[in-house]
Amino acid sequence: MKPRKRHTVGILALGPVPEIVLKIVAAHVSGYLDLPACFLPQMALPRECLDERRGQYDAAKLINHLKSQSFAGCTKVLALLDDDLFVPIFTHIFGEAQQGGTHAVISLSRLKDLEDGAKSTDADFYERTAKVALHELGHLLDLFHCQDPACFMHFSGAIETLDAISMGFCPYCKSYLQQACLLVEPLPVDR
Amino acid sequence: MSDKMRIMVVDDEMIVRESFYHWFTKYGHAVETAASGEEALEKLENRQFDLLFVDIKMPGMDGLELLDRVKTEYPETFVVIITAYGSIESAVKAMKSGASDYLLKPFKPDHINLVMEKINQQKVLTAEYDYLKQQLGEVTRFDDIIGQSPPMVEVFETIPEIADTDAYVLLTGETGTGKELVAKAIHAKSHRANFPFIAINCGAMAESLLESELFGHTKGAFTGAHKNRKGFLEVVSGGTLFLDEIGEISMKMQVDLLRVLEEKKIQRIGSHQPIDVDFRLICASSRNLDELIRAGTFREDFYYRINVIEIRIPTLRERKADIPLLIRHFLKKYSQETTKHVDHVDASAEQLLKSYDWPGNVRELENAIERAVVLSKSRTLSARDFSFLKPAQFSDAGGRTLLDVEKRHIKGVLDECGWNISQAARILDINRSTLHKKINKYELRQ
Questions:
Q1: Interface predicted TM-score of the whole assembly (ipTM), two decimals
Q2: N or C: more exposed end of chain B, with fewer CB within 10 A?
Q3: Which domain holds residue B419?
Q4: Same domain assignment for residues B202 and B287
Q5: In angstroms, what separates the C-alpha of B110 from chain A's closest C-alpha?
Q6: Model confidence over A94-111: pLDDT tens digits?
Q7: What does DSSP assign to residue B75?
Q8: Do A71 and A12 contact (CB within 8 A), yes or no?
Q9: Which of A90, A147, A158 sits opposite B107 (nearest CB)?
């Protein structure tokens, strides 16, 4: 049997992202999933992924752009950006990852304040960022959306539902992740 | 969103299809996409979908037209209309045509969850409705006899009335009308239900074999009788004996059976020892027994003995209203038996099946559907799947006079031969000029 290697999660800033946010995401990845996280050098936001009409970045294009880059030593990459994200069918999204894929994007743009404009604390902002990051990483590890409204994998399209999520995976998702995180496919040879 | 669904996204824009695809796969749904209404219909022919997301504006068939087709041909499939160019008019039209919801692109991420929750609730309601409908369906079924037309309702009403008496019953009706099912139903509703029901087709046995089967024999009674054997008249003890095609039995057998019915005793072949028997007799005939009596091949006294209560089973021609119900029943039966998912007939097939005369009655319909299901490559049967039905039996082909029959027959032969006059004349055993005269007389056209 070929030796199996555990996932290493790369944390990437696309454009300027506060260092504290990157550190919080890395700490939550290690803390909740017991996976090593490493910081990748900041990359500029590719302008070709910006939809001028909507004034938002196209999540699918960003993921494709990331796929064309080399991130040596990482099996999964969480890319954070301060700008707004969309997929064609939705007005906005907090994050996007392909099911069982390798790259995810997370937008901080709508995590700071409530929709009615009410200000949030830094702690609320950091917690929301960590929740979205772990949710998208869950998809990269092939977890589906979860019906448990308290689980990280429960879908939330609004800050209110995101805030209602507890800090943790439900027992079912946790059980799946324990297997997914320990038994990892060998790294592709071209990495 | 609890249950996993099979979803199809129909949109001419690839990025929209991909967005939906990635979104729904995150819920574990099975997702397929189609770039046009035509492609969606092709996919629907081969696979069942729970839910369709359909864009209104597409080249070729637009979303509202597709919605109409889906709701007509696959009414159990939910459809959500999506559009980037919303108007009250199109929304009203979509909802009136049976759409479950109407979404304006792009929509808020939470909105689609609300839509999916609503669809799930509709699914639950539909499942409850189907269950209740099935329960109601039981009212129109009587121990596997299916029908809700007035002639069948009359039969259904008669069965419980006579079931618990021991009166002998004569079932008449054409072959394939379901006489044995009625006999079984009478037995099942009677106080003899816990005892055997034995059916014998008298027309399928030689007289000597029928005699041996009914009365049994003792060892050495005839060549090959190596041991004592009970006949069905003994074996059926306490139960119901169903003698199908009773008009086929010999005069001698009629006398023997008449004696059994009067004395309630039998003697095995080769024995003089009388044995008490207790059974209810139900006979059936597809032949006109009155005519057989007049022809001297059926005993009048035996006829009156077995015909205490007569139930005439209607032909399928007389209860064409039951055809859609029977189609659904047989489709379900053979879809399960063959594991082929064929669960619809389209309008052309239903019309064809209704216009056919069904000389073989329900049995012929059942066989036709079984054959069509086995050979079908899609989940919907169309008229071409029933092309094997004999054209002469279509009731819209004309009346029933001798001239009508001749006209239909000649037309049928000509069609078979591709209107090759010489070949058709040979088959009809008439010369070509006679055939031409008949073609002109009946105004037959290719």
A1: 0.77
A2: C
A3: 402-442
A4: yes
A5: 5
A6: 999 988 999 999 999 999
A7: T
A8: yes
A9: A90
